[in-house]
Write a sequence for this structure.
């Protein structure tokens, strides 16, 4: 497949993704800043989302900026990713299925010196999209009220980063990303009284805009053993960060979709707001055979209990995650057998998320697998990762979310500062 055909494929898939992105619906993304996207690019996702100790001469690992120093001298990497997914929402009464696709990330990486690498990229930090109906019966003696509450929201945070990684003493690498976090959230709430034909529908609308700077620090140690074996260790850290912005809100009553009463005393524009992103610590190790096999494990913790979500009523928990994965290349330099040069990956993760519903912390369990497909006569590679998992539970009347996510990325590899010779 030529680079021209690859670009054509990306543009086609991007068009499909943009047209289908509105299908995303996850009730749990109502909580906090939404569902976090902190599992790296396609190659990381295929191996379970591990990142702390992962370093490669032809892979962009923005989750630990210390990895940038491993890139080939004179090379240039450019990677673009898209995803498509299916979510099945299951309660004790019904099941619903939603499909969605979207542009996912864009990044480039390049060496500045033999010991110094840099990367720039755009990737999501979180996503929020939900549409919830809640039926209630409120009793007061012999009187009772039947009501339907509707909660609808969209939005999320994005991350633009620029990072550097430098090697020290041939065995240690340090790195830092400086990221600009920005985004907005739209929240709508509606209350309908069902057993009173003359009651108004109560409406609440809120728009929140946030932005701020985030620093990610990374360190990696890499230790070869008898030429072809290795052990890597790594860690990344993010300090507590303030996101500042403004929000607008409106309360009004309506009847048959006609606004009856607009309470100007309860409306507000350009109100200042501040939200806190918590400390984030990740540690991991990997071991294996150079250019053949990798096995790695990551542990991550985020102190969300010291933070709060877009709504002050959100109850957040500390986030803990364990991820493990392995990667295998049968024969990376095979000439005759293409499939021996393919990168085969699989992984597993278990997360105690930052989200809590009815006093129950929401857990996320999943498996992943993927392929790294090399393009003939180049170092360009197509990465495909598939994640299958379960978020939440049906206990206590909650919703269980079964999901499948497919990420497709193309990583272009080019040589910089190479003089071409012609006969």
């Amino acid at each position: 497949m030529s680079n021209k055909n690859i670009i054509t494929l990306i543009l086609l898939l991007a068009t499909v993704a943009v047209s289908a992105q509105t299908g995303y619906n996850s009730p749990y993304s109502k909580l906090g800043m939404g569902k976090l996207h902190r599992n790296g690019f396609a190659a990381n996702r295929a191996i379970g989302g591990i990142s702390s100790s992962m370093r490669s001469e032809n892979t962009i690992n923005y989750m630990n900026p210390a990895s940038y120093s491993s890139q080939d001298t004179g090379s240039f990497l450019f990677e673009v990713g898209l995803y498509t997914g299916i979510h099945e929402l299951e309660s004790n009464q019904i099941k619903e299925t939603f499909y969605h696709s979207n542009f996912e990330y864009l990044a480039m990486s390049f060496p500045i010196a033999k010991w110094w690498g840099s990367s720039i990229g755009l990737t999501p930090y979180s996503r929020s999209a939900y549409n919830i109906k809640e039926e209630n019966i409120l009793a007061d003696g012999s009187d009772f009220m039947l009501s339907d509450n509707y909660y609808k929201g969209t939005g999320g945070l994005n991350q633009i980063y620029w990072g550097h990684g430098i090697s020290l003493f041939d065995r240690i690498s340090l790195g830092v990303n400086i990221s600009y976090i920005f985004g907005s959230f739209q929240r709508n709430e509606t209350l309908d009284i069902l057993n009173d034909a003359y009651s108004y529908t109560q409406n609440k609308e809120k728009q929140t805009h946030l932005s701020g700077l985030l620093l990610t620090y990374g360190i990696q140690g890499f230790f070869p053993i008898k030429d072809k074996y290795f052990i890597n260790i790594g860690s990344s850290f993010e300090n507590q960060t303030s996101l500042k912005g403004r929000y607008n809100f409106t309360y009004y009553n309506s009847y048959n979709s006609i606004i009856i009463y607009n309470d100007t005393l309860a409306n507000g524009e350009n109100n200042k707001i501040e939200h806190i992103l918590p400390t984030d610590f990740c540690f991991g190790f990997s071991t294996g055979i150079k250019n053949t096999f990798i096995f790695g494990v990551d542990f991550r913790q985020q102190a969300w209990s010291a933070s709060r979500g877009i709504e002050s009523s959100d109850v957040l928990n500390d986030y803990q995650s364990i991820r493990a994965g392995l990667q295998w290349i049968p024969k990376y330099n095979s000439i005759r057998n293409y499939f021996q040069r393919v990168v085969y990956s699989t992984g597993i993760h278990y997360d105690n998320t930052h989200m809590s519903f009815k006093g129950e912390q929401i857990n996320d369990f999943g498996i992943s697998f993927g392929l790294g497909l090399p393009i003939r006569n180049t170092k360009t590679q197509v990465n495909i990762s598939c994640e299958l998992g379960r978020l939440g539970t049906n206990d206590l009347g909650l919703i269980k979310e079964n999901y499948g996510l497919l990420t497709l990325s193309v990583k272009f590899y080019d040589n910089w500062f190479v003089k071409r010779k012609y006969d």
Residues 3-412 form a domain with the Porin fold (CATH 2.40.160.60). The two ends are 27 Å apart (CA to CA). The chain has one domain: 3-412. Confidence is low (pLDDT under 50) at residues 16-22.
